[in-house]
Amino acid sequence: MAETTIQQHQGEHEAGKLGMWIFLFTELFLFGGLFLVYAVLRATYSADFHRGAEELDAFVGTLNTVILLISSMTVAMSITAIRRKESGKALLLLVTTILLAGLFMVNKYFEWSHKLELKIYPGSPVLENMERGELLFFGLYYMTTGLHALHVLIGMILLTITAAKVRSKQITSESYLLLENGALYWHLVDLIWIFLFPLLYLVT
Amino acid sequence: MEKPGHHILSYNSLLGVLVALLSLTALSVWITNFNFGTLSVGVALLVAAIKGATVLTYFMHLKFESRILKLMVGGVFLLFALVIIITFIDYLLR
Prior knowledge:
Chain A is mainly alpha-helical. Chain A has helices spanning 2-44, 46-55, 58-83, 87-117, 125-128, 132-167, 177-202. Chain A: GO terms for molecular function: cytochrome-c oxidase activity.
């Protein structure tokens, strides 16, 4: 009897994880459409894209890349911790991840406010007077990084719920599907940034 | 042989993966000093693809998952790449 229950539980865990992966595939294609738009516009307006990318702060972009990579590691470590029955450590690692995500958003805030000070925002007169390609570059910049930042916020909420459940012992070494799926979501956010960062900030 | 999905990655190996990813990030910033001309997007995407594969394999634990999940993820990424590449080629050759 106990054997079947464990097998059943294992099956539910695997199915739950598979469902999360399928959801992540849809996310991939959501951003994929934007990558395609980038490819086509870049081919059409390469000189304007060159100028646009030079306006972006590669340092802030690099800093945010490092922050997301470290947070990806801490969330992966929290799974190791929970499976080794070290739930205190798992909670600490999750909170670290959420704080790093917050730091990413703070950087994003400063980056965007600087752009606003320069009056570069969708529909601004400064932007409308730029070359057509530059206008499109910044449109794409706000669209892709904005959609990504929304994912960071959702990830923060998801990981906060997960952390609360680790704290209240609803997530344990026996049952940690939510933690695993939350971590998968967070890795996807990192994965998308890995591609956005060089395309927007580095390739000039 | 362990059952798929049952391998626990140690803290040290996860730290090792992070070091590799940070090195690749440094590489991607450093190579912007060189001008690859039209290939620069390709070079940047190559480094990004290696980083992405590392995240998928270790952080997202794919290396230790069941064969069916590996095939699914591999298949979807292949489809994703084909959609992007074929559409882009179509655009370029118009």
